[in-house]
């Protein structure tokens, strides 16, 4: 039987989710500058005092919203199979997923935070979030590399820096190409940079 306290807690969770949803909409349509508690309260059909109850500043709200979206993305990640039959094809698939997430997922919102950091505390918190995102990237690579070991394509895992090359090269291409990474460019990154580096360490 559901208790009264559980019902109140469920309403609280739903309210926070509605506020996050309003935050996402404003970030994606109008940008960070549109985020203020009065506007969020209106968009989420609640009062400004309720928003203040949960967060001290608009940055705190956006940070929490991005964290929630990253958590959802991580849960989805656990249900995805990145093995495409060969190490090369799996790396391309991981790259495609990362590009999609960077353009449409929580990392797009995450990039907005970087441009709005104004003090050391915000930089530290955002740095912690980046470390968590890096951990998710490592998890994808470890899955792909483990399958490659099982198929006999490689004999051992490369170091952490090599596992992250794919994502770093994609980010670098984003900057050079105004956020665009073509399929051809991704395959070049895999064929000429990432795969040779992984195979090199496998032979050591």
Tally of alpha and pi helices: 10
Arithmetic mean of pLDDT: 84
Q: Please tell me how large the radius of gyration is.
A: 20 Å
Please report which band the strand proportion falls in: under 5%, 5-15%, 15-25%, 25-35%, 35-45% or over 45%.
under 5%
Shape: elongated
Protein name: AcrR family transcriptional regulator
Keywords: DNA-binding
DNA-binding region: 36-55
InterPro entries: Homeodomain-like_sf, HTH-type_TetR-like_transc_reg, HTH_TetR, Tet_transcr_reg_TetR-rel_C_sf
Secondary-structure map:
Layout: H1 4-29, H2 37-43, H3 48-54, H4 58-77, H5 87-104, H6 106-116, H7 120-151, H8 160-163, H9 165-176, H10 183-203
Helix pairs in contact: 1-4, 2-3, 4-6, 4-7, 5-7, 5-10, 9-10
Task: Give a written overview of the molecule.
- The protein is mainly α and 204 residues long.
- 77% of the residues lie in helices and 0% in strands.
- Helix 1 packs across helix 4 and helix 5 packs antiparallel against helix 7.
- The protein is elongated.
- It comes from Paenibacillus favisporus.
- InterPro entries: Homeodomain-like_sf (IPR009057), HTH-type_TetR-like_transc_reg (IPR050109), HTH_TetR (IPR001647), Tet_transcr_reg_TetR-rel_C_sf (IPR036271).
